[in-house]
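Entry for the shared binder. Reason: the reviewer on the internal report wants the predicted structure included alongside the sequence.
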Amino acid sequence: MALRVGFVGVGGIAQRHLTYCQQREDVEIVGHADPVFERAAKVAADFGGRAYDSYDKLYAAEHPQALVICTPPFAHGDIEEAACDQGIPFFVEKPVAVSMDLALRVQRAVERSGVATQVGYMYRFAEPVLKVKELLGQHQTAMVQAHYYMPGLPPPDWWPSLELGGGQLIEQATHMLDLGRFLAGEVVAVQGKAVRTRDWTPPPGCEKPEGMLSYAADFDIPDTTALILEYESGALGTLSCSLVPQAKWDNGFKVVADGLIVTIDGANAFWAGDTEGSMAASPNWANYVLGEFLDVVQAGSTRTSVPYIEGVKSLAISIAGYESMRRGGGPVDPRELLGEARPRAVFAGAVLSGVEMAGADLTNADLTGANLAGANLSGADFSNANLSGAVVVGADLSGADFSNANLSGVVLPQANLSGADFSNANLSGANLAGADLSGADFSNAQLPGATLQGADLPGDDKDD
């Protein structure tokens, strides 16, 4: 018996999925829901099934056994939750949402219902990408480099809106971020920077052309973005993306590993090093992701290769990039956004004088204005913590890690800071008079206005 499939959202990428479903003898397209009814009606005439102007009418009238959801980013949420409530498996195009709150809400609905889900990260299924994953399993990855350059702004009205589409980082470059996760593992830190390099205001008399755009009213997204990524394995990664108008699409992906360098161009792959070779993707590789989903549902299973949670995790990297920008460029752990990371410790204004906390993990902690006088914090990890205005008189902080921490205005006289790591830390206006700083690392630290009289300083590491 043919699988009864309904489509929600029939613009753009839906055309490829409609064509694929129409070619399968074991699939019957039963209906199409789109807020633009005329669009749904045209697709129904071309591919079969009935047209509806809302997903709930489609669900009620056709009782589909599976859904293909191809809506714009802002439209997700209720569609998927209603499918879960009715026990309908669904395939959903990326990105799964434009906010973590919404994505996690749908994920909870998926978990409650137990329905099969698949996210349209098609690169994971290409034969060359699978071969690269096999090769990288035998080599230690060092660097993942990705770029996604578009020849302008796509024409849908929602694209220039950060609230509706999430910008290029969420809507398009998510393919590169997901591919990085697939090949190199989970990301544990993201730093981001985004700019708008040109005026997108339409000039007088400018009419909207066909195809990619060079101007758009109410343009409130970045046109150029860069991320630095740290993977759980210790590898680093970069992503650069831009939609500044130019001649062509240019998307690329490279992996540098111990003894191997890999280039992925589209879905084709080339590698060189202790083994050399290349592989071209099959003509139908982009259909594999939907094909697997339909096969799984037909078999009565729920085990897919890219379940909804994978889309949530890849979305978290994009949103961590934006969150890093909001926080001033510091690193953000995507697991924090997923609720997986250890909650941030908050000691703001607390009195911790004389406390025993040797070796404590205070990563990302808020210690603003805390009193740590005389405390034993030797070997503690304060990386990325905020200690601005804290009082640490006479504390033992030998060997502590303050890398990337904010120590502006902190009071540290007579403290034992021997061997501490202050690399990249902000010590503006800090009082370090009489502190033991022997062996400390101040590389790239900010020290304007810091008080260092009588401090025992390292020989070469202090930046002036």
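Summary line for the report: The chain has twelve helices and 14 strands.
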